[in-house]
Design brief:
Oligomer: heterodimer
Number of helices of chain B: 3
Number of strands of chain A: 19
Order of helices and strands of chain B: EEEHEEEEEHEH
Strand content of chain B: 25-35%
Largest interface: A-B, 17 and 12 residues
Order of helices and strands of chain A: HEEHEEHEEEHEEHEEEHEHHEEEEEE
Helix content of chain B: 10-25%
Strand content of chain A: 25-35%
CATH superfamily of chain B: RNA polymerase II/Efflux pump adaptor protein, barrel-sandwich hybrid domain
Structural class of chain A: alpha+beta
CATH class of chain B: Mainly Beta
Radius of gyration of chain B: 14 Å
Number of domains of chain B: 1
Shape of chain A: globular
CATH superfamily of the largest domain in chain A: Probable tRNA modification gtpase trme, domain 1
Strand order of the largest sheet of chain A: 10-11-12-9-3-13
Number of domains of chain A: 3
CATH class of the largest domain in chain A: Alpha Beta
CATH architecture of the largest domain in chain A: 2-Layer Sandwich
Helix content of chain A: 10-25%
Distance between the termini of chain B: 24 Å
Number of strands of chain B: 9
Radius of gyration of chain A: 21 Å
Chain lengths: 370, 132
């Protein structure tokens, strides 16, 4: 472990609680504490706590903040009511994905409204640069608040019940994809009904110095109900089951949001942003491969990069795969040519030289029932 | 078998040599340290009985939720037996890696291979240096 890796305010806690620390996008992060499956199941059945402080938090103030973001992201920001959060993409001039982000419109406790982007850790510096390069003198102050804050995701059917006693705002009062400033363990923070697991839950942002107090209170409450701290390993299996793309796997600058199946997050009507013209053209292009879900029989796991075949012909590649703890079978996301992408198509994956049967299924693999 | 009495490959396989039947036969498996590092095991591929293997050659693979790893033969020789109950009972690797969790038996081609393996203390030292 080199000392050049960034550490979240909870790094010491992870290290002293059995977290196996790995380099993730330049951050020293826990990949697991006990076992991926144990942490995964704790999230599906009770509550999981995730330190997601490595993700970028960029704030936008000033009269032109709304108009600025409106011409940056793929989705409408203008007219978004305060309190709302939207999933969107930032695309380059050719329509390739620079990042997938959450856009928050929030109200300060002192009344004024502001915006926030939550971006992937691996893309934070690139996006900050992109924002500055596209400011064009707009009256907006762009502030990267990542290092002075911490972010904790609490996910699972019992997530809200462990958050509720620690906050001035009942998380239940927030609709899905809504957020608001509030008090959290006595500090001023932000709570949003968002997440990356397919479960109900919320994400909390607090000043860095309040992170440990909040985490420990959450951890104690989670432990009492069979919950767990969750590392990046289970974060990946959870998001995969939930059919959510991960940047660097299902998303990249070579992939556009349409082929990724994210057209719901692209609004081209009367809007101009980097990539908007290219995306309008790409809409008609049926030659691009598309993102699909695959389930396999047996136990062998299709991993990133493995070829996907129809008959003897390679028609695509796996972008993420795992052994699904909830479905108890291997699952994968892949990009394949469109004519083989229909649900029910029978394909094979070349797993280190052996062909394993795979079936195209609808995403997500897992949908919570309550 | 006691872990102290075994020999180890740098790649985390253990070896126990039985000379009672005349020609020496090595029982091999993977160490507790390796099982702990993998966690969440989902799949094991055993080698074929009768296969001639060379020390350092991949003879199977073990897959966890997180990743897949090769199992390397610590010695050269012929695979004479494999633990057929293991792929459907991977818990044995967690519960008893040096007993019920054995993987294969290899009729040694050359006892000199054993000189390249680590004694328990040296292996422990390597594990400590690798951390988790």
């Amino acid at each position: 472990m080199t000392s050049t890796l960034a550490q979240t305010p909870l790094h010491g806690w992870h290290a002293s609680h059995g977290g196996r620390l790995v380099d993730f996008a330049g951050w020293s992060m826990p990949v697991q504490y006990s076992s991926i499956v144990v942490e995964h199941n704790a999230t599906r059945t009770a509550a999981g706590l995730f330190d997601v402080s490595h993700m970028g938090r960029i704030r936008f103030e000033g009269p032109a903040a709304e108009a600025f973001l409106e011409r940056i992201v793929t989705r409408r920001v203008a007219g978004m009511p305060a309190g709302q959060i939207r999933y969107a993409l930032v695309t380059n001039d050719t329509g390739g994905v620079l990042d997938d982000v959450l856009v928050y419109h929030l109200t300060h406790s002192r009344g004024a409204s502001y915006y926030q982007l939550v971006v992937n850790a691996s893309n934070r510096e690139k996006i900050v640069r992109w924002l500055h390069d596209h400011r064009d003198g707009a009256e907006v102050e762009i502030h990267d608040a990542t290092l002075e804050t911490a972010m904790i995701a609490v996910q699972g059917p019992r997530a809200l019940e462990i958050v509720r006693p620690l906050t001035s705002l009942d998380p239940e009062s927030l609709a899905y994809y809504h957020g608001a400033e509030c008090e959290l363990v006595g500090a001023s923070g932000l709570i949003s009904r968002t997440g990356y697991t397919g479960e109900d839950g919320c994400e909390l942002i607090v000043p860095a110095e309040a992170a440990l107090t909040l985490w420990e209170a959450l951890y104690q409450a989670a432990q009492a109900i069979g919950g767990s701290a969750v590392g990046l390993g289970a974060r990946d299996t959870l998001r995969l089951e939930a059919g959510m793309p991960l940047y660097g796997h299902e998303l990249s600058e070579e992939i556009d949001p349409l082929q990724a199946g994210l057209s719901f997050a692209v609004n081209l009507k009367d809007r101009t942003f980097p990539g908007s013209e290219a995306l309008a053209k790409r809409k008609a292009d049926t030659s691009a491969s598309v993102r699909i879900g695959l389930t396999l029989e047996g136990k062998r796991v299709p991993r990133e990069g493995y070829p996907v075949l129809a008959g003897e012909q390679q028609i695509g590649r796996v972008t993420s795969g795992t052994f699904s703890p909830t479905l108890n079978r291997p699952i994968a996301m892949a990009y394949v040519s469109r004519q083989h992408a229909a649900t029910g198509s029978e394909l094979t994956v070349d797993i280190r030289g052996s062909r394993e049967s795979a079936r195209v299924v609808e995403l997500p693999f897992y949908k919570r029932t309550t | 078998m006691k872990p102290q009495d075994l020999l180890y490959a740098k790649t985390h396989e253990w070896v126990h040599v039985d000379r009672s039947g005349g020609s020496p036969v090595a029982t091999i498996g993977i160490s507790h340290f390796a099982v702990e590092a993998l966690t969440d095991l989902v799949y094991l591929e055993l080698p074929e009985v009768g296969r001639q293997v060379k020390a350092g050659q991949s003879i199977g693979e073990i897959e966890s939720v997180k990743a897949v790893s090769d199992i390397y033969s610590p010695v050269s020789g012929e695979i004479v037996e494999v633990n057929r109950a293991l792929p459907d009972g991977l818990g044995k690797l967690n519960d008893d890696p040096y007993g019920d969790g054995w993987i294969a038996k290899i009729k040694l081609a050359d006892e000199a291979d054993l000189k390249n393996l680590l004694a328990h203390a040296a292996y422990e030292k390597q594990c400590a240096e690798e951390g988790h």
